[in-house]
Amino acid sequence: MNDATSKSFHKVAKRMGWMDEGGLEETEKKVFPKKTNTPTSQPQTRRPLSLFNSPVFVSDDEDDDNIVLKSTWRTRHTRPKSLPKTSENTPPLCNDDETSSSEEEFTSLLERLKKKNNFIGNSFLPNNSKARRQSERAETRSNQQVRLVNALIGHQIVSLFLLYTNICLHFALFFPSRIMLCKTPGCFLQSLTNPSSSYVGSFKHNKEALTSKLYHLYNTTVFESKLPANMSVTWNKKMRKTAGYCVTGQEKGGGNRYARIELSEKVCDSADRLRDTLIHEMCHAATWLINSVRDGHGNFWKLYARKATLAHPELPMVTRCHSYDIKYKFQYQCTRCKNTIGRHSKSLDTQRFVCALCTGQLVLLTPSKPRAPTPFANFVKENYSSVRQELAGQSHAEVMRKLSADFASKTKLSQS
């Protein structure tokens, strides 16, 4: 080294404390080793930059001994610490602090891996592995079982009440001598199955009065008079298979709720059918007017149906659908499969329509019988021409009025 370089190196060695390790010559040998041409058996281990202190720059001027400039390269270029490679003969170049920091980094790396992948037991399983799919299936089955158990528990309250009523009804069926009698005063429901009853014998003439009487009885004994006393209950001629229907609604602007009941003339053709159908439809009206619920044949409807059965044990069990045998006036039969089709009127054209099951030809089984002419029709037939001549120039309506008056006077004379 020249004098200037030796002088600067001397200052640096003095500040770094190298002078205490054998003087300047030994320091020069360590810092500036002589190059040899002999190959080394093992490569020299390179220490990582993180183990060195920050470089110190010292001025060459003797007057600037107190000026020391430290580099900020280490603070600006920070890298995660890594464990240096060590050989068998070379001792590890890390202290206790670096070991603890490395363990913390390794622990944080494990946590990140756990979040990214599913960690089951002590091993990592990829997202698409077979074990993961099996675990998901097992979890799905367990969730389905839990939901099923919760649903079963939720229906226990209503089921207990329904079970109690069913037990009472089955007990009455198996032990007819111990049938519970209706305790309602003035109850006449049992008599509606007796052919000698006035309501059964003349049902067509008394069905309006019977409907009103039944509604008042049910409203008092089953629904505690919570239904309106003047609810509309009408008879419908167009309902051919449905026994009854309950129409529910609400007035515009969030007004009052209302309900009306329609009964079928063709299906409810007897007193006992009217009795059973009316209580069915009143249960629908109660769920809407009392509980503000439209649940069809749900829990509220079943509650009122069982309540009606307990209040009147002589009633049959109120079911969802009726099993009435509808009486059709006309019957058609297939000539191939013998299937029968009922109609209330002779409206089925056998030349155009065939059997829906086998496409066979349909034949009318009960042809319409010719009705005998009425006494008034015979009177018109005998006297129409003579009255027409008397009222020449008058309309047909005037002729028929004259014939009606003559027939009425003749009938009164014959009766007297």
TrEMBL record:
The organism's place on the tree of life at top rank: Eukaryota
InterPro entries: SprT-like_domain, SprT_Zn_ribbon
TM stretches of this protein: 157-175
Domain SprT-like residues, every copy: 208-365
Name of the protein described by the UniProt record: Germ cell nuclear acidic peptidase
Keywords carried by this UniProt record: Membrane, Transmembrane, Transmembrane helix
GO cellular component: nucleus
Region (Disordered): 1-57, 76-101, 124-143
Recorded coiled-coil stretches: none
Residue ranges with Polar residues bias: 35-53
GO annotation, biological process: DNA damage response
